């Protein structure tokens, strides 16, 4: 019996994986397909508490929204996209729809990742991707190393060295986000607090 094989594009393969693995995060970063399992409880709780902090700071009144798991189109390669854990976006971000569930990077004010099993992507590949996309601020809760890193103001597609914050400290949200807010490192790392 003959078996027909079909070559899939990276985007088609990503779509098939997303359907086959509900709850997993499927992304294409620098032309590489990545799959991350669903977050653990501490990861999810830290994002919930982050949203509450932005609510208290008046993010909606500042003309922005926060969203979880919304696709960010990465313009470096045609099929590249990321799905950040948490993002602060312009209130009208849906007008910047590019394709599928992905939105143009110019409506993203802040992107947040809380590391999981894919911590290396969050600390390396996504730093490059988000800088190339011109994301004004990228915040990484590095649970593996017990710190939070803040990258800001990319120039020529690169962030300068990040600011490091340890347990017991707070991370000031950059002015470009539109609200005055200090975020607890411990809440980011553990979901406690």
Detailed description of the structure:
The chain has 193 residues and is an alpha+beta fold. The protein contains four helices and 14 strands. It has helices at 10-20, 41-57, 119-132, 185-190; strands at residues 25-29, 32-36, 64-67, 71-73, 81-82, 86-90, 97-99, 102-103, 108-114, 137-142, 147-152, 163-166, 170-172, 182-184. The strands form four sheets. It has a six-stranded mixed sheet with strand order 3-6-9-10-11-12, sandwiched between helices. It has a four-stranded mixed sheet with strand order 5-4-8-7, with no helix packed on it. 36% of the residues are buried. The model has no long low-confidence stretch (mean pLDDT 93).
Give a short synopsis of this structure.
The chain is of the alpha+beta class. It has helices spanning 10-20, 41-57, 119-132, 185-190; strands at 25-29, 32-36, 64-67, 71-73, 81-82, 86-90, 97-99, 102-103, 108-114, 137-142, 147-152, 163-166, 170-172, 182-184. The chain has a six-stranded mixed sheet, with helices on both faces. Strands 5-4-8-7 form a four-stranded mixed sheet, with no helix packed on it. It has a two-stranded antiparallel ribbon with strand order 1-2.
